Amino acid sequence: MIKKATSAAAAAAATALLLTACTGGPSDSTGGAGDDPVAGGTVHMLQNADFSYLDPARGFDGGVNAFYRLIYRGLTMQAAGDAEDPNAIVPDLAESLGTASEDGLTWTYTLKDGLKFDNGDPITAAEVEFGISRAWDPEIGIGSPWLKQTVDAPEDYAGPYQSGDHPGIETPDEHTIVFHLIEPFPEFDNVLAQPNAVPFPVGSGAGDEFINDVIASGPYTLDTYTPGSLIKLVRNEHWDADTDDVRKAYPDAWEFEIGLEAATIDERLLAGQGTDVNAIAGKIQAATLPRVQTPELQDRLIASPAFCTTYMGMNTTKAPFDQVEVRQAVNYALDRASIQTASGGTQLADPATTIIPTAVSGHKDFDLYPSEDYAGDPAKALELLAEVGLEDGFSFVLDIRAQPSMQAQAEAVQEALKAINVEVELNVIDTSTYYETIGTPSQQSDAAITGWCPDWASSASTMVPPLVDGRLITEKGNTNLAQLDDAAVNARIDEIKAIADLAEANVQWGEFDEEVMALAPMAPLVLEKGLFLPGANIAGYHPSTSMTDLAIIGLKDPSQG
């Protein structure tokens, strides 16, 4: 029987999965085999592509964000996947969540005692301010955009290396950090749970210093890094479990084996030999599904629902996607049933017609571009193209990741659009640099296939606005792939953000989703579910299609493998 992941999806308002709330660390565990993780041993992660960046100011995707949780800490963090409320934001380096001023423009945090980096140096307010201010560096700060969107800073502030201390962050003493916001933002605790809101020693991390090295504040630190091949983490001896109520840090070490073919990963997990009994990986491939029907493998198999939407963003600054009729025509023409098949079939994907997934708070069920059995409506699409003189079609370049499943999706798009005389040229980009490439408007092609997950689970505010707010278009780290800059859309975002009632705001975000899809800056493709096959000796594993919880994973018996 396939097990369902006990993650944020199990909650009614689930979105991004994160990590486990507990007291104590590995010392609280006892040895011996069983269903619960115990201290010791090495967990292996088998993966196709390298992480985008070890530096959290640069990286920002589900895989690397999960990795960051092992080596970095912030003032706050999202609770564990097996916590009573896995969507909650909880204190991490801070003693408590933030205290907001009456006008909501000032947030104050107090650091815990006894915090240290992996070199033994203390973590004080100065290091927190410095690390967070790196998000403003024009070259390094290409990760999560939320700090720059909420914390007040002059337009010409360019981070600590060029501009010095951050003018919007005060450190009146070693334990106190005060943030001044651009405008009230009730979800600011969530902002500080983002991966780039972490401390670093003052003066460190300039240029490419953190490309191949790290300065850790979490339970693990970097032992070995061979780009494209191997990352080995070992315990950070200066991490104090008494200061960390979330990370359990059971294993003595982690080894990330990189550059493996997806089929090879599945074969190794199916066989479960040697150290692979202690291994985890991403979703199994569609081709592997028929081979996991035996009772033994079914017992290991874990299902996770879709937290993210796979979509094709269309660059509205480039012809012919600067015309709404063309974008609407593409939405009508796409054979989402075929894309579902390319994504692994009904067990691994559902057709998507909205931006907000069904599992996410604020989802509204609608389909503005319907077709029978989701197979597409080329006739309606051709009518729209005829309105703008493009009934003979056009051609465009589609950016895709160098992964078999993504290429299969792109080929399904390519085939469907032939029916409306549209030729699609595929531009295949290495996975490790994909997000940076498509997030740099000067390097972006006409369209791109990617996925989007909510950055936190308390509201739908992080699901649609980052994809369409014209004021957020940046030279690097851009999330608005459509480069849509519509005054009415921007104003509507501000209107909903001002709603104090979270439940009402979520209703409005659902309405906003439909309003955006009328403009069709993107084409939702599928909601990708996941089936995961951990090694037989893995425990505490709660996989997610958004971000898997690594900090609570351990081994049943560290002597195996």
UniProtKB/TrEMBL annotation:
- What are the residue boundaries of the Solute-binding protein family domain, all occurrences included? 89-464
Is Cell wall biogenesis/degradation given among the entry's keywords?
no
> What is the species listed in this Swiss-Prot or TrEMBL entry?
Glycomyces paridis
**Cleavable signal peptide:** 1-21
Sorted alphabetically, the keyword list is: Signal
Q: Which PROSITE patterns match?
A: PROKAR_LIPOPROTEIN (PS51257)
Which GO biological-process labels does this protein carry?
Answer: peptide transport
Q: Name one GO molecular function term.
A: peptide transmembrane transporter activity
Q: Which GO terms describe its cellular component?
A: ATP-binding cassette (ABC) transporter complex; periplasmic space
What protein am I looking at? ABC transporter substrate-binding protein
